[in-house]
UniProtKB/TrEMBL annotation:
Residues 128-178 form the RNA polymerase sigma factor 70 region 4 type domain. The keyword DNA-binding applies. It comes from the Bacteria. This is Sigma-70 family RNA polymerase sigma factor. Keywords: DNA-binding, Sigma factor, Transcription, Transcription regulation. The keyword Transcription regulation applies. Residues 15-78 form the RNA polymerase sigma-70 region domain. Belongs to the sigma-70 factor family. ECF subfamily.
Length: 189
């Protein structure tokens, strides 16, 4: 039995058709606009290099998302390794005669004296982000697209192939899980 190619690639239109979606997908996962842009560019580049490997069983966007997912995983592997931490540069001064950067592992710690409220908000933000990362993949994607990226419900349903009622069930379940996680990891510390 031979595989039939049901989808075709059109690299000339990738930027026009997919860059916004891929960027939103990436920025929701890495929380850094510049890194998200880089990851999308790497995705397109890898897609061009791997055109021969496209079997046509998935849509063009699905194929590009799978490449982007691997790029995101590689990004996190790099920043979580000791070598990766040494290689990541942090901007110290944006402009002027002192313009330059620090290697993240060697960068000085902030000298700011934060108010208690700022510290609490930062800690709560970390707990919330950790809880979002613990959601099942589909819940996380739907929740982030709807709440953080503010996609329209109809667009999310069309992109993920789900019904409107399924969308709201997923969002409700994600919120319930987030509430439980935050209560456990923040309020009951």
């Amino acid at each position: 039995m031979t595989e039939q190619k049901t989808h075709e690639l059109n690299p000339e239109k990738w930027v026009q058709l997919h860059s916004d979606f891929l960027f939103q997908y990436a920025v929701a996962r890495v929380s850094n606009h510049d890194m998200a842009k880089d990851l999308v560019q790497e995705t397109f580049f890898s897609g061009l290099k791997g055109l021969e490997g496209f079997r046509g069983q998935a849509s063009e966007r699905t194929w590009l998302i799978s490449i982007l997912k691997r790029k995101i995983i590689d990004y996190y592997r790099k920043i979580n390794s000791d070598k990766g931490k040494r290689e990541i540069n942090m901007s110290f001064f944006e402009e002027g005669e002192n313009q330059g950067g620090w290697i993240e592992a060697l960068a000085p710690k902030s000298w700011d004296n934060f108010a208690d409220k700022d510290i609490e908000n930062t800690e709560l933000g970390k707990v919330l982000n950790d809880c979002i990362q613990r959601l099942p993949e589909k819940y996380k994607i739907v929740f982030l697209l709807k709440t953080e990226s503010q996609y329209e419900s109809e667009d999310i349903c069309n992109e993920l192939g789900i019904s409107a009622s399924n969308l709201w069930v997923i969002i409700h379940r994600a919120r319930v899980q987030l509430r439980k996680c935050i209560e456990t990891n923040w309020f009951n510390k």
